[in-house]
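Submission sheet (multi-component)
Chains listed below:
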Amino acid sequence: MDTVVAKANLLSRYQQYTARKYHFILVLLAGLVVAAMVSLKLGAVPLDFQTIAKVLGNKLFGADYAVDNIAVTVIWELRLPRICMGIVVGAGLALAGVTMQVILRNPLASPYTLGMASAAGFGAALSLVANVGFWGGHELWTITNAFLFSLLSSLLVIGLARLRQVSAGTLILAGIAMMFLFSALTSLLQYIGSNEEIAAVVFWLMGNLSRSTWPKTAMATAAVVGIMPVLLRYSWDYNALASGDETARSFGVNIGRVRFVSLALASLVVAASICFVGTIAFVGLVAPHIARMIIGGDHRFLLPAASLLGAVLLLIADTAARTVLSPVVLPVGILTSFLGVPLFVYLIVKRRRDYW
Amino acid sequence: MILELENLGFNFGYKQILKDVSFSVPEGAIVSLVGPNGSGKTTLLRCIVGALRHGRGRILVDGQPLAKAGFSDFAKRIGYVPQIEGNGFPVTVFDAVLLGRKPYISWNPSQRDLEVVSETLMLLGLDEFALREMNELSGGEKQKVLIARAIANEPHLLVLDEPTSSLDLKHQVETLDLVSSLSQDRHISVIMAMHDLNLATMYSDRLVMLKEGCVMGDAPPSELLTAAIIRSLYGVDVSVSKGKGTLHVYLNHPCKACKGYPR
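Outcome: structure written.
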């Protein structure tokens, strides 16, 4: 009888533990909606919620409220695409971060571990300084260059892994080597570039969401939304991988394929995000860790939770970037670190556990 | 026979790690692999659990050949306890053991999965740690969690890689008591790599001796363990004596500056 009670007790404790994870995800979803509404309201042109509701009603549900044209432009052409871009990029980077960390089984891995950020930076600089490309210094070419080079870097590293069976540690080393190669190349371009060109490159490297438009947001969204379910389907394989290659193999996980597909898809998400917004570094490293601290390492919950957290973090950071020194707009890359580091350090100090 | 190995070979690059290994594990038996470091014990176990693809030969589990890629059907028959794994990402004990149910789970664990995990945790006395994190546990407790994960799988064959190597004397005995009682109660066959010949003798039905990738002997401990064969296996002088229903292996190594026993 005692064992029956003890078992029921254990099961209910585990169910509470699982329920907490669902709650965390729901809280994040609610937080994201609130943050988006507040972000729509704040800015150089102050708006009230009534106007926002009317504009959204008109645009989304075909309603016919009388609203100011300036308000429509500010909401629909400026703030909303930027907010959506922030959500999608934050989610995408965090998603890629979780994936890279578990696949490389390294807490220091981030979306940029495979040298992707500096490669994207080099691609952008190539277009901004050397005017290389069909459109010369045209923005579209900057985007294309950044996308292609960041993919190139990760494909070189992944290809190395396919060519010879290398360990996760070696992959990270190869990625760091790529990072140095591309930053050296970017430095070279900056050295030969004019002052204006250098400023453009530096601005790009800091990362910001100000160039967001609906078509760009749609493309980034397509990549993130299309790839997330595929990575989610690997959740149990990731759980097995987290406890060791050998263990995962003994559970029938085809490690080579999981690693290749995951790295390739995560790279695609990252490339599709940073080519539009520049390198926003911190979200992809820190959102996975914060989410893991709060709800634990089960990837069925960790992947969505970290993605939502990344979205919220980047959205709040970007709203702050637009408003703290208004009308000066700071690059969001700076603000993500200002917001993320204190949160991260607070959680580390609070937990007092072995790992963090 | 639960497990049969037929002329198994494995090469790592050009180096032959296993050569023509053949032996079998009868149902419900505990078989220990003994042999010096580098003799191929761990490699052999990894081939059996599908973590390495073997070369020549065949591995039969329940009479069926082990597929080259580890399919989850075989993952259901074999529970694997690797050497204690270091610093992975943190995971709670319950989730670690639930991973043992992976071959049965597609997305959400079923009620039965959760019940099996709970029962296993209680059987091993781990229920109080259930929601603690693995890296907060001691070595002995971690080893128990890994065993719990392996049997949550409800396997026919339990494969353990040096289950006692990082444990103190009490936990060594506890772990092996657990393994042998599981083997008896659930008719699980066991194959484990062991370094401690005395423990291997006490707990095994058979010993398989490996040297340089070849099987040097395969018999019950009492028939196999002689001073001569141990000397040829490890190159160390020992004497073997009978006592209290088991054999004892004593080290006769001439110690140049023995400190434990003043003359």
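Remark: Residues 169-186 of chain B form the longest helix (18 residues).
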